[in-house]
Amino acid sequence: MLIPLSAVMGQTRAKNLLLSSSAKDKMSHAYLFKGPSGVGKKMLARAFAAFINCRAPQGREACGSCPSCKKFSSDNHPDLHIIEPQGMGIKIDQIRRLQKDLTYPPFEARTRVVILPDIHDTMRRPEVANSLLKTLEEPPPHTLLILTGDEAGSILPTILSRCQIVAFSPLTYQEVAGLLAPEVEPRQALTLAAVAEGSPGRALLLHQTGLLELRQGMIATLTRLDPNSPDAVGMVYDLAAQAADLKEKLHELLDLLATWLRDLTLLALEQQGQLINHDLADLLQQGRRAWRPEGLLAALDHIRQARRQLLRNCNRTLVCEVLFFALLREKW
User: Fold this and answer.
1) Of 50, 73, 52, 61, which Cα lies nearest the Cα of 5?
2) What is the pLDDT of residues 279-290, one digit of tens each?
């Protein structure tokens, strides 16, 4: 699919930097698009690839009708390589196959473009990253590499030093809400935008997967549940099972729970104007009375511990059980 540069919401600085370097014929051999997840890094990579290979660009946009643009539109351009992860990450065989392909000149493009998305997640094995370094150090002619990575992710310094970093920033809540309309009603769209911290991709994920509603139900249960109630143990096991069933989306739920605890902490400090979970107004007031202020900091630490345990591939269900019991212990 051909993506116009204008379709990428916001990111004016990133677009201006790329367009200026292209106009002056001073493009870097490798860029690292670095910023929050879901703010348009991969979209801009594809849009820029189409633009620099368009044979009749219209100002700041690809024409959409030349042979190159038509091949980008049909996802059939021979000189666009997108290296998607296989399983948990990019495999060394993929990098070696790419390196072999790059020994040949581009088929028809002025600039062959290689996109390696989410390298903070996909380059888990040192040998994969080290193999890529060889290409970054000695890139073939007429080839542009675009890597994308989240600002919170871990990216090897050796990769950072070999790329020109292009910074991406969150969108405003109003911009994200506008992208969600008309599929989402305005109030919920603003809540999604705030909870997603200005990331349209994350806001859409939360909406489509129902995670926002699930987190509301879990928070309601945790808020109203008496730790000393005979039903507490069974309800915690039920919550843990629901959370564990999310599998790879569990980290998103933990982020949502951390945001809720952050809001409770702000309420305890009487800073209500900075709240994010606007749709949880009643539950936040109930939670303010249910959790000790010092218990909220401990609860946030429990979530950090759960994240670390999941990264070590601990049993998801057990991690969630320990977490929810720990959250209940921090109540009054």
Assistant:
1) 61
2) 898 999 999 999
pLDDT bracket for residue 124 (50, 70, 90): low
What span, in angstroms and rounded, lies between the C-alpha atoms of 50 and 80? 9
Fold of 5-167: Rossmann fold (3.40.50)
Query: 46-60, 83-97, 241-255 — which is least confidently predicted?
Result: 83-97
CATH number of 210-329: 1.20.272.10
Spans of all domains in the chain? 5-167, 210-329
Question: What's the rounded Cα separation, in Å, for the pair 216 and 263?
Answer: 14
pLDDT > 90? residue 201: no
Residues 50, 62: Cα–Cα separation, whole Å: 7
